[in-house]
Amino acid sequence: MRNQATVPALRPEFVRDTLDASNIGEIVRPLSTWERISNITAVRRVFILVVLAAAWQAYSVPLDNPLIFPTFTETLRSLWHETVNGELPARVAASLKVLVMGYAAGVALAAILTTFAVSTRIGTDFLSTLTAMFNPLPAIALLPLALLWFGLGNPSLIFVLIHSVLWAVSLNTHSGFLGVSDTMRMAGNNYGLTGIRFVMRILIPAAFPSILTGLKIGWAFAWRTLIAAELVFGVSSGSGGLGWFIFENRNQLEVANVFAGLTTVIIIGLLVESVIFRTIEIHTVRKWGMQR
Amino acid sequence: MAVAGTSRTDGLLLEVDDVTLQYKTPQHLVTATYRVGFTVHRGDRFIVLGPSGCGKSTLLKGVAGFLKPVEGAIRLNGKTITQPGPDRMMVFQEFDQLLPWKTVSQNVMFPMVTSGKFPAREAGARALAAIDKVGLAKFADVYPHMLSGGMKQRVAIARAMAMEPDILLMDEPFAALDALTRRKMQEELLQLWADIGFTMLFVTHSIEEAIIVGNRILVLSPHPGQVKAELNSDSHGIAGGENFVTLQNRIHDMLFAERVEDERVQ
User: Fold this and answer.
1) A218 found inside a domain
2) What is the pLDDT of residues B78-132, one digit of tens each?
3) I need a labelling partner for B250 at 20 to 30 A (CA). Which of A111, A241, B59, B106 fits?
């Protein structure tokens, strides 16, 4: 016998019609009410918040020391009281006004810097170097210098806010631009798009997931920087912001108010993240299938 | 009397005149094609066929205007090509050529509107007609990420056709599709050509695809790409037929003969 592969036995061929598959039972079944409710992200998140609040209450009631750790209900009470008497809304408005100005200025500067960076090689080097230098530098560390240059008041706050927003947004936008595929760039060029029209119509939407991430990080940096900066001063501008509210109440040992102020900081953070940015996400990157 | 000015009437559309193309990688300067010359006439289904490394995609990028020849010239309608433009619409192999932030109909409208060739209202109607032509009328308002690979390529073809470019440049448009879908797309493309009558320059590395799709085949040899032959492939019957297989073998021998000879010499 020669040493070779054995050929399997020849078997008959057949051709047949497909079977009727309509009686294999349920093909599509609606989920149960419980499954559907637990699929809603907001429901799960609210549940976590409720558990945290309950733990807070359970710890602070036996502790019974409102100077150190007020209960959840006490905090809610002062939150309600300070809101109704108009103190807290005024402080929030003051903080948000400064925040929006600083954030907008930071994003505008980031747009200019990134446009410069994508259009020239020296611009890219400029952006990379500046970002490497300033991104790790905490914005609050620039506050003493800002106070020296601009004095007590909003210009100093806006200066540190710009610093906190600019680098995060530029870095993410630029890396988003670099990630746009050659095919998409060529497609854009093929339609005769060049220069600023190319940036607006191709690069920005294509890099939008990264840009959005940059905007979110920039927002978080800006918000925490603002509150921290307001803790340092705020009295000069008449009515200070939310940070100053916290600081004042600590000095007066109104600890429940301090908690109310901190809660407000958190609530605003959650609202911006889960309402504003989430809405933008749902209507852009999720709809486009660029993010799950 | 053939005078330069009247030569357009003979149907000559694209002249590639002894073109040498080079591109730079971070380490090397690569010569992709060396003195490649051919002409495409109006209504041609002109195939550029060759193994990988023969510079066929680079050649197409040259025609598209993304790359300037270091030698020779590329002329469309007698005018030298210097930059990309919507008179040469390109269909790429990659699926991400569709803009994910636009629906199918917006994608098809986009070049018509941005190039200013058609006013917005007309562009909308033309887009719907083109989408209907490639059989995707039901998906006009869907975003690209919800489409299959074959559907995405159909949209890309519709987008390019709706522009009514002078020439359609296709860079292995079906290479990333599965074999069955590819076969269907080839037939659909031929049907579209029969219905509308456009000119296309089609790059592929598949001998079979070249014979099915093309009426004229430019065979390139690799490293650097040089013209090996230019063959007629129209009326070679259906795939698998006698004429078809003869031509297929002829091209196959052309592309692979060299290697055997090389071995014999050494």
Assistant:
1) yes
2) 788 888 888 888 888 888 888 889 898 888 988 888 887 888 888 888 888 888 8
3) B59
3-state secondary structure B49-90: ECCCCCCHHHHHHHHHCCCCCCEEEEEECCEECCCCCCCEEE
Residue A55 resides in a domain: no
Q: Does A289 touch chain B (CB under 8 A)?
A: yes
Using a CB-CB distance cutoff of 8 angstroms, which residues of chain B are in contact with residue A192? 84-86, 114-115
| Of A277, A221, A231, nearest in space to A251 by CA | A231
The count of domains in chain A is: 1
Q: pTM for the complete prediction?
A: 0.78
Domain boundaries, chain B: 96-164
Distance from CA of B177 to the nearest CA of A (A): 17
**DSSP labels, A82-115:** HHHTTHHHHHHHHHHHHHHHHHHHHHHHHHHHHH
How far apart are the C-alpha atoms of A280 and A290, rounded to whole Å? 13
Nearest-CA distance B185 → chain A (Å): 21
Structure ipTM: 0.80
Question: Which residues in chain A have Cβ-Cβ distances shorter than 8 Å to B99?
Answer: 184, 187, 202, 205-206
Chain A residue numbers with beta carbons less than 8 Å from the beta carbon of B165 are none
Domain range enclosing A185? 88-283
- Give the pLDDT mean for B135-156: 87
Tokens 């070049």 locate to: B111
Q: B256 vs chain A: nearest CA distance in angstroms? A: 30
